[in-house]
Write a structure and sequence with these properties.
By secondary structure, this protein is α/β, with parallel strands linked by helices. Helix content is about 35%, strand content about 25%. A nine-stranded mixed β-sheet has the order 2-1-3-4-9-8-7-5-6, sandwiched between helices. Strands 15, 16, 17, 18, 20, 22 and 25 form a seven-stranded mixed β-sheet that branches. Strands 12-11-10-13-14 form a five-stranded parallel β-sheet, sandwiched between helices. The radius of gyration is 26 Å and the shape is globular. Bound molecules: xanthosine-5'-monophosphate (XMP). The site of xanthosine-5'-monophosphate has 16 residues, from helix 10.
Length: about 600
């Protein structure tokens, strides 16, 4: 079946993906297109949305994209940068200035189909430096904005020409802070473009099953099953299409998995009836060897990626992969190469694009039934196929697994600018009535869209949660060189700490695995697992007790997509339980909860 579809032109950042996700929720297919795609690529769409951009400015220089879209006889709607581009293209004027950031009120000039069902004043989210100050012939101002009821009016917050069917919003309707953004998008897609909402998951499954059957014919498929959501759902779709007799699955234990995880993965696949040809290899020795003696995070990541290729190629040849088509759980953001973090991309590139796979792709021998879907849609599809909820809604787990949660160190304190930082951090702590100790190690963070590699701070004292967050915020604002704050929860606030020489060993991995299992078990039993996006448990080679025992850090966060995050607050009973159980582990002498938002701290520590 051919579905009505909308093209979303991706001018950068995550905006385009957000917009596409929202349109798809209306059961209308939305596809991401690149600005430079040839005009023929736009021929099948019933409407076009131009996304915002974190870096482009519609002011001055000519922004290179396929302007011929304006000759197409379909409605076009632009957001932020896209709005400014539309204004400019049709003879309006854009200037540097008129910055708005945060919630604003949109005051509509008149009733308009784009705002059907909405009030004359709407709460919207603004984030722009440039502004439209004049519209071209045929365009009208559909609404202006103000920051607060008494703020000055910003003109042209929404513009349009009903004759041309061209519209623009200075605000971002795709973010949840725009209260009725979903309704505005629906008014455009279903109303103005007239798309039929025919793209449903039930329909999608049937189409994919048909496609897989056609592609595989009488052949068979080989699929790498990590136990993650994507590969599990892909296995299920392919199994449904061709039957388990012709589906070969391989699960690799890289030694960096969670406690008991490989056993559970195999059990799940068996329970799904996909065990006709279920292969398993324990490759933990190979990965441990590859990681031996390494300390630097990126070198560890590369070693894990390389070991993966080695094991995969070896196993694939041993199992005669050449005779099969290759099944992969590649999802939409991977397909268009913009999703996830840059580091996630590197790892995923390793997994999905190793040479042996590249050759197979070139020969049309790769089956990817989820390649059009976002993660939330993969989960929805999994639900439709009856895959258990707890498998579909497991917290995301990074490709390099516990490998990036086991911090390593030469044992040399990383002091650099430390002598200046230490007293400043302590002074901010005192001003809040708290102890604050800068730590002589570094972890990864993100500041102004760039990676930072800076010191964490340990905060101690019986403080209210809000007060802790406030103290952390002040430290980030006033002390350069800090990207992370933790709240010390046990046993006592150390006066000083010392880095320990530590690399990846089986013993340390086992210790981290045990702590991670305690945290996951605790979250489940206290009923908080489902509300939390992800909760890395990290082992940090810092000693406070002179006995060579390490620090354990727990990082529960709330997030929508992992791009930004805030620290989640555990109930006191769970904190008390973690204190008791984790500090009882031999090898651990300290426990802290990471209370950093992203930015400035990334979710993972490495
Ligand atoms: P950060 O730490 O960048 O993480 O805030 C954002 C999300 O990406 C995951 N992550 C990774 N996933 N390989 C992966 O497959 C990696 O190297 C990697 N590093 C981070 C992280 O768990 C979070 O969900």
């Amino acid at each position: 079946m051919i579905h009505d579809a909308i093209a979303v032109i991706d001018f950068g950042g995550q905006y385009a993906h957000l917009i596409a996700t929202k349109i798809r929720r209306l059961h209308v297919l939305a596809e991401i297109r690149q600005p430079e795609d040839p005009i023929e690529a736009f021929s099948r769409y019933k409407g076009i949305v131009l996304s915002g951009s974190p870096s482009l400015s519609a002011f001055g220089e000519d922004s290179g994209y396929t302007k011929a879209i304006y000759d197409l006889d379909v409605p076009i709607l632009g957001f932020c940068f896209g709005h400014q581009e539309i204004a400019k293209h049709y003879g309006g004027e854009v200037i540097h200035g008129g910055r708005e950031w945060g919630h604003a009120d949109l005051h509509l000039t008149r009733e308009h189909p784009l705002f059907k069902g909405l009030a004359r004043a709407e709460r919207v989210w603004m984030s722009h430096f440039d502004s439209v100050v004049k519209v071209g012939p045929g365009f009208e101002e559909l609404g202006h904005s103000s920051l607060g009821a008494s703020g000055p009016a910003h003109r042209y917050a929404a513009i349009g020409s009903d004759t041309l069917r061209r519209y623009g919003f200075q605000f971002h309707p795709e973010v949840d802070d725009t209260e009725h953004g979903d309704e505005m998008i629906a008014n455009f897609v279903l109303g103005i473009c007239g798309c039929a909402p025919s793209w449903t998951m039930a329909q999608y499954i049937q189409e994919q099953i048909g496609r897989v059957r056609e592609q595989v014919g009488g052949g068979s498929v080989f699929l790498l099953a990590s136990g993650g959501v994507d590969s599990t759902v892909a296995a299920r779709v392919i199994g449904q299409a061709i039957g388990s007799e012709r589906l070969h699955l391989l699960h690799i234990d890289n030694g960096l998995m969670r406690k008991d995880e490989s056993r559970q993965v195999l059990e799940t696949l068996r329970a799904m009836g996909l065990d006709r040809h279920l292969h398993f290899v324990d490759a933990s020795e190979t990965f441990l060897r590859a990681l031996e003696g390494l300390v630097e995070p990126e070198r560890k990541r590369k070693a894990i990626g390389d070991a993966f290729i080695e094991v995969f190629e070896h196993e694939a040849r041993r199992l005669g992969i050449e005779g099969h088509l290759l099944g992969q759980g590649t999802i939409y953001p991977d397909t268009i190469e913009t999703g996830g973090t840059k580091r996630a991309d590197v790892i995923k590139t390793h997994h999905n694009r190793v040479p042996i796979i590249q050759e197979m792709i070139a020969r049309g021998r790769v089956v990817e039934p989820l390649a059009d879907l976002y993660k939330v849609e993969v989960r929805e599809l999994g639900e439709t196929l009856g895959i258990p909820h707890e498998i579909l809604w497991r917290h995301p787990f990074p490709g390099p697994g516990l490998g990036v949660r086991l911090l390593c160190s030469t044992g040399e304190p990383d002091r650099g600018d430390f002598d200046e930082i230490e007293p400043k951090v302590a002074a901010v702590g005192r001003s809040y009535g708290l102890d604050a100790l800068a730590l002589p190690i570094k972890s990864v963070g993100v500041k102004a869209d760039l990676r930072s590699y800076e010191h964490p701070v340990l905060i101690g004292g019986a403080a209210q949660w809000d007060r802790l967050l406030e103290a952390a915020g002040t430290i980030f604002k006033t002390v350069p060189g800090i990207n992370r704050c933790m709240w010390n929860v046990g046993p006592r606030m150390p006066k000083r700490v010392r880095p320990l020489g530590a690399t990846v060993t089986r013993d340390r991995l086992d210790l981290l695995r045990e702590a991670d299992a305690i945290v996951n078990d605790g979250m489940r039993r206290h009923g908080v697992y489902g509300g939390i996006w992800q909760c890395p448990t990290v082992l940090v080679p810092l000693e406070a007790d002179g006995a060579g025992r390490e620090f354990c850090i727990v990082r529960p966060i709330l997030s929508e997509r992992g791009m930004t995050a805030s620290a989640a607050r555990f109930p006191a009973a769970l904190v008390a339980e973690l204190r008791e159980r984790i500090l009882a582990l031999p090898g651990v002498s300290g426990l802290a909860l990471d209370i950093t938002s992203k930015p400035p701290g990334t979710i993972e520590w490495e």
